[in-house]
Amino acid sequence: MSEETKDRPSHFIRDMIAADVAAGKNGGQVVTRFPPEPNGYLHIGHAKAICIDFGMAQEFGGRCHLRMDDTNPAKESMEYVENIQRDIRWLGFDWGDHFYYSADYFERMVECAVKLIRMDMAYVCELTQEQWKDYRGIPTQPGRESPFRNRPAEESVALFARMRAGVFPDGSLCLRAKIDMASPNLHLRDPVLYRILRMPHYLTGDAWVIYPTYDYAHPIEDAIEGVTHSLCTLEFEVHRPLYDWVVQTLGFDPVPRQTEFARLNLTYTVMSKRKLLELVQGGQVAGWDDPRMPTLCGMRRRGYPPAAVRAFCDAVGVTKYESLTDVALLEHCVRDELNRTATRRMAVFDPLKVVIDNLPADAPAAFGIPNNPEDPAAGTREVPFGRTILIEREDFMEEPPKDFFRLAPGRAVRLRGAGFLTCTEVVKDASGRVVELHGTWQPMTEKVKVKATIHWVPEAGARQVEVRLYDRLFRVEDLSATPEESDYRDFLNPDSLKTVTAFAEPSIAGAQPGAAFQFERIGYFCADEKDSKPGAPVFNRTVTLKDAYAKAQGRR
Ligand code: ATP
Ligand code: MG
Description:
Blueprint: H1 12-22, E1 31-34, H2 44-59, E2 63-68, H3 78-91, E3 99-101, H4 106-118, E4 122-125, H5 129-136, H6 153-165, E5 174-177, E6 192-196, E7 210-212, H7 214-225, E8 229-233, H8 240-249, E9 257-261, H9 273-281, H10 296-302, H11 306-316, H12 327-341, E10 343-345, E11 347-348, E12 351-356, E13 366-370, E14 380-384, E15 388-392, E16 412-415, E17 420-428, E18 434-442, E19 453-454, E20 456-458, E21 463-470, E22 497-504, E23 516-519, E24 523-527, E25 538-544, H13 548-552
Parallel strand pairs: 1-2, 2-3, 8-9, 10-23, 12-18, 16-19, 21-25
Antiparallel strand pairs: 4-5, 5-6, 6-7, 11-22, 12-15, 13-14, 15-20, 16-17, 17-18, 21-22, 23-24, 24-25
The protein binds adenosine-5'-triphosphate and magnesium ion (MG).
């Protein structure tokens, strides 16, 4: 086990692999794979699977393959393949030379099918899908055997060849495994191995009119690649006997072993590629990488650091129990990481002008303020100072209640990195609204008793920047518990995006696209990687500073 991971809490998959390695199984080798279907972008649920698949291989000195599970040509595309690769790299994992397509194995799979037919373990069936439903039966009662089940093997071999050659219409014939029509597991009642489907495949074009089913293809792909541990989500548990049947009947040695874990479900979001695609196509979001999406590219654009996503997957752990994880835990991990790494800047969202009446001629023209108090190596930047500054309107109250410690008439506060400000005068407009404050300034070297520090920006040189304030995409916590007759889109949060203008200190102009910042006392933000222009960054709010998760855990 590597240094980095040995202190992590263990889980059943790690324990199982450790035991296999200790017992010298597969020569002590660990080979896993991550098999996404290229029919959409990766989401945070996939991140969990990726962290387990790649993480286990890394920990045990093995390797993890990236394989496009592209046996179903409908909706698959190269665009998805490329973005899947990009997102996995972003998350921090590497498949080395082990990138594969299921389609690479189509010819081998046909050979295996012919082998099964000749072993009397598969046959071409001519029942229609409707008829088959009836033959298959229900779990509590055995099904009936297809009348084609016992046709001579050579007849099936010939028919299968003609299926492949395009002689028959779509869906008319199929190849079935010959297993057990009385099995209580419906997946073992002569499941389909091949179907006829005239649909161009993004890799193989029109070369094929028959496509293997997932249940047949997946175990063969794993076995061909020498995968030792095939880790997947719980919905495949009932398919496992079929997985084992395929690799054992075909005589692969060694045989890969499938193990299932619970999917990740998150509050306030949906996590199915179909639904995410619908949101993109329906225009409810601006694209797969909309910062409100639970996709990895959305999270990257939102400013989530990959290390935070990995820490979250670690914190979620690996179990066999379906559960709903609080998105606040993810946000907590994001804050935790950004607190250590994000550059501090000051920005005022709702400005109130303050005129300093006593600023001496020799007052500093600028202050050097640390870029990150958590990281001395991050250095300082210069923030110009002057007679007029902007503060946050809510940091002033004319008649403060007892528990308000910030600026008020006659009261002083510390200005972040820039001495003290005492409010001496309040200027109002005709309607009685406070429009300006006057005050006096004292340098840091003086001893002034204050109870609060506020942020500020110099009026001269302040940059107006566009800031997108993102909130949760949905307004209900558990979308799986919404009424049957409702549509998940009924629960979209109408306030999930607000665009505002903030006034930031001048150095913000140099923000590089993608760079992360803490706007002091406000939250974490990142310069949008797409819409930022040189010298004119646009910001996405990554998370607020308030940590609901830590609070709930009694940590802060
Ligand atoms: P979706 O249901 O979102 O469309 P999928 O399971 O069809 O996802 P695949 O591309 O087949 O998507 O998934 C690739 C791998 O990621 C599979 O091994 C699957 O088990 C795993 N995976 C998918 N969703 C989750 C999730 N929510 N939590 C953990 N693993 C997941
Ligand atoms: Mg799938």
